Amino acid sequence: MIISCNDQPVRTVNDLEKHRAAAAGKKLSITLIRKQKQMTIALPEVQQNEETM
Questions:
Q1: Distance of alpha carbon 40 from alpha carbon 53, whole angstroms
Q2: Strands 2-5 and 28-34, sheet pairing
Q3: What is the pLDDT of residues 33-45, one digit of tens each?
Q4: Exposure on the CB side of residue 25, measured as CA atoms within 13 A
Q5: How far apart (Å, rounded) are the C-alpha atoms in residues 53 and 50?
Q6: Percent of the chain with pLDDT over 90
Q7: CA of 18: how far to CAs of 34, 36, 37, in Å?
Q8: What's this model's pTM, rounded to 2 decimal places?
Q9: Are 9 and 30 in contact (CB under 8 A)?
Q10: From 4, 25, 40, 53, which residue has the greatest number of CB atoms within 10 Å?
Q11: Which domain range does residue 47 map to?
Q12: Is 35 helix (H, G, I), strand (E, B) or coil?
């Protein structure tokens, strides 16, 4: 379960999409809970595609 994106809370898919769009051209950090453990993953620069414009 994703709980935050770039240190901003994620409660809905729309929240995640907004944070992803705001990170266009920047690194993206996603914090999630998997197997009852919290972990953070860093993704390389996010490219904005035509579908999200």
A1: 27
A2: antiparallel
A3: 999 999 999 988 7
A4: 1
A5: 5
A6: 60
A7: 23, 26, 25
A8: 0.73
A9: no
A10: 4
A11: 2-52
A12: coil
